[in-house]
Amino acid sequence: MAIFLTAQSRVMIQGITGSEGRKHGTRMLAAGTKIVGGTNPRKAGQTVSLNGSDIPVFGTVADTMAETGADVSVIFVPASGTKDAVIEAIDARIPLAVVITEGIPVHDSAEFWAYACANGNTTRIVGPNCPGIASPGKSNAGIIPADISSEGRIGLVSKSGTLTYQMMYELRDIGFSTAVGIGGDPIIGTTHIDCLQAFQEDPETDVIVMIGEIGGDAEERAADYVDQHVSKPVVGYVAGFTAPEGKTMGHAGAIISGSSGTAQAKKEALEKAGVRVGRTPSETARLAREAIRRI
């Protein structure tokens, strides 16, 4: 089993004819993803060749869904058009929209997230500014390399794309049910808590690894959720122990102010909830191995 993205997922790409859509669409298809179509309003009726397969191009998300049964959209649309692309996906009521694009204005993210909420949250948004979702051996929606890990029983939720890749590689021999890169922007759709809940309910996930970073209070809120609702072992890592106060580090949301949002404060909140927290990614991987062995 997997969360959000399974072997049965039928994936479309918004922006399939652009360079990023083509490049990563080719990778996704090679990983076994069922890519059934894509959109470009100016090239509807044409096809795009990915790995020798001719993928149909449609004018809208709704048309793609009607013709192909697509239930996941991966969005590779430039930042200036991403808000409209996500709103179109929400209007079409696609169950899952994975927003890879970075550099989206916070106001745009707030607007399409509010629009999703106002429309009953029928579309789960992952991202923006995220690497996507990988369920090894089943499907891959986004830019996570497909050859760095294997299918297994660890669930991973991470703000950082790079640390997602590192953790998947370090634990490749054990493997993952699903890895979800939720993105590091100040406003994102799917949160740590959403993934913790889904992994808790997934019978084929035995251990959860949670990667956070400085800034905001998402990790503290996740710690409260773990304390109250998660019975499976959770291992954590918080990036940014050496980050200077008041300086944005990499992600737009990774900024601390005074004692708020520091890695140490997040580590303490997680450990209070029973989460074992590593000081480095490699130590976190070791803690995950220990948790697997104890099951």
Low-confidence stretches: none
User: How are strands sequenced across the largest beta sheet?
Assistant: 3-4-2-1-5-6-7
CATH class of the largest domain: Alpha Beta
- Count of DSSP E strands? 14
Helices, by number, come to 9
So what's the overall shape?
A: globular
- Secondary structure class reads alpha/beta
Q: List SSEs in N-to-C order.
A: EHEEEHEHEHEEEEHEHEHEHEH
What is the radius of gyration computed over CA atoms, rounded to a whole number of angstroms? 19 Å
In the CATH hierarchy, what is the architecture of the largest domain at level 2? 3-Layer(aba) Sandwich
Kindly give the count of domains: 2
First CA to last CA: what distance? 19 Å
| CATH H-tier superfamily of the largest domain | Succinyl-CoA synthetase domains
Furnish the topology, listing elements before pairings.
Elements: E1 10-14, H1 19-30, E2 34-39, E3 47-50, E4 53-58, H2 61-68, E5 72-75, H3 79-91, E6 96-99, H4 106-118, E7 124-126, E8 132-135, E9 139-142, E10 151-158, H5 161-170, E11 176-181, H6 192-201, E12 207-213, H7 218-229, E13 234-239, H8 263-272, E14 276-278, H9 281-294
Helix pairs in contact: 3-4, 5-9, 6-7, 7-8
